[in-house]
Amino acid sequence: MLTTTLAAERLEHRFSGPPLFSGLHLRLSSGLLAVTGRNGSGKTTLLKILAGLRRPADGSVRVERDGRQLIGAQRRLALGWAGPDLSLYGELTALENLRFFRSAAGAAESSPELLRRLAETGLGEDAARRPVEEFSTGMRQRLRLAFALLFDPPILLLDEPMAGLDVEGREVVERVVARARTRGAVVIASNDEGDFDAPEQRIELSPAGAAT
């Protein structure tokens, strides 16, 4: 089985004033990494940098498969990211959103397969065929999780995945994370310790920007 590794070296980022974080290193190929810290400490920014959605001020991020660096489409498909600011198309149904995202990546997939993926996050066929603009906050959060899982990535990057979820929704996320961390790596950013179940690694971002 091929091993996919997420590695970061000397990461630093700032907007103005002191850095949000600096000198940050990580290497992860399996298990759960918890990214904690107060609001504004840089958790969301760090996950976007790891996902390739934002460039760091300094340092580098690599995704490797058995020692070979992945670039381009291979790198993108190896990472599944979801966060509160993931844009969904309200006029489209949940099923149409996933079909659009698959098509944008150059991959086709049948409706039954996409419906199965939605069902795994607790969105049944009735919900799958409703416009997303009618969704509750929790339903949108489940759809974001389905988006992160769309290409069966070996590395999941989840920013506040429990936000807006009821007990059933939290259980869905817990099951997804438990499965994913046995076959690859999961990074969860949250300031709620209840969102983590015995993480193998931890990064705490302090208000001053230091990582520990």
Can you give a write-up of this model?
The chain is an alpha/beta fold and 212 residues long. It has one domain: P-loop containing nucleotide triphosphate hydrolases (Rossmann fold), CATH 3.40.50.300. 33% of the residues lie in helices and 25% in strands. Strands 6-7-8-3-9 form a five-stranded parallel beta sheet, with helices on both faces. A four-stranded antiparallel beta sheet has the order 2-1-4-5. A hairpin with a 2-residue loop joins β4 and β5 (68-69). The longest helix has 17 residues, at 167-183. 37% of the residues are buried.
The string of secondary-structure elements, in order, is EEEHEEHEHHHHEHEE
Structural class: alpha/beta
What is the mean pLDDT?
92
Overall tally of structural domains: 1
CATH architecture: 3-Layer(aba) Sandwich
Largest β sheet strand count, sense and barrel closure: 5 strands, parallel
Q: Name the assembly state.
A: single chain
Spatial strand arrangement across the major sheet: 6-7-8-3-9
Distance between the termini: 32 Å
In short:
Helices cover 33% and strands 25% of the residues. The chain is an alpha/beta fold and 212 residues long.
Task: For the structure shown, list the relevant keywords.
Rossmann fold; 33% helix
Give the secondary structure arrangement, pairings included:
Layout: E1 4-13, E2 21-28, E3 31-37, H1 43-51, E4 58-65, E5 68-69, H2 72-78, E6 79-82, H3 94-104, H4 111-120, H5 125-128, H6 137-148, E7 155-159, H7 167-183, E8 185-189, E9 201-205
Parallel strand pairs: 3-8, 3-9, 6-7, 7-8
Antiparallel strand pairs: 1-2, 1-4, 4-5
